[in-house]
């Protein structure tokens, strides 16, 4: 499984050893698998869908010319934002990702609110039923009135 070139960098006065791995398919899935099985300490990528595959320690902008790389820890996302892996997957379904187009009209704030409020598949099914109901507030209100004065029941 491990083959290819080994890389050794002096990165901000620390030596870091990199072993390049050729993935048979999705690179982020392969890297997440390696981390989940304790074979690597973290994943270096600029692709955020790595969290959906189960990565816990992600390093971004490692090779940018800027001064700083960024470290993201899943435990901080869970603690600070209340979003675990399953909620991030649901958010990707609402927002879109490499594998889905997302739901039109749902942005980041709405997606977070939805996954926090409807945490189980059953709750999301109820939400789906509600969301598919015709919006009576958008229809012509005059159809509910007789001669414009009294409500038709």
Topology:
Blueprint: E1 6-11, E2 14-19, H1 27-36, E3 43-44, E4 57-60, E5 70-73, H2 74-81, H3 85-95, H4 108-117, H5 121-132, E6 145-146, E7 150-151
Parallel strand pairs: 3-4
Antiparallel strand pairs: 1-2, 4-5, 6-7
Structure in words:
This protein has helices at 27-36, 74-81, 85-95, 108-117, 121-132; strands at 6-11, 14-19, 43-44, 57-60, 70-73, 145-146, 150-151. The protein is α+β, with helices and mostly antiparallel strands and 153 residues long. The strands form three sheets. It has a three-stranded mixed sheet. Strands 1-2 form a two-stranded antiparallel ribbon. The N and C termini lie far apart (71 Å). The model is unreliable at 1-13 (pLDDT under 50).
Number of helices: 5
Shape: elongated
Distance between the termini: 71 Å
Widest beta sheet: strand line-up:
3-4-5
